[in-house]
Write a structure and sequence with these properties.
The chain has 2 helices and no strands. Helix 1 (about 5-20) packs antiparallel against helix 2. The two termini are about 20 Å apart. It has helices at about 5-20, 25-45.
């Protein structure tokens, strides 16, 4: 995976977290989802797209 794609995978959860906060939710409300999103993002970096599908490839 290229550095640019790697940076994009970590930026997407940050953008989603910001959207949640701006919509009026508190950091405490957003935290569990943010942790789950970060875990998925890093699993994707480690293991590729099959991390999100439990080993199954889409398509």
């Amino acid at each position: 995976m290229t550095t640019g794609r790697s940076a994009q995978r970590t930026r997407i959860p940050a953008t989603e977290n910001r959207r949640r906060i701006v919509s009026g939710r508190s950091a405490d409300e957003v935290h569990p989802e943010a942790v789950a999103d970060a875990g998925l993002a890093f699993a994707l970096l480690r293991h590729g797209p099959t991390a999100a599908t439990g080993g199954r490839r889409n398509g």
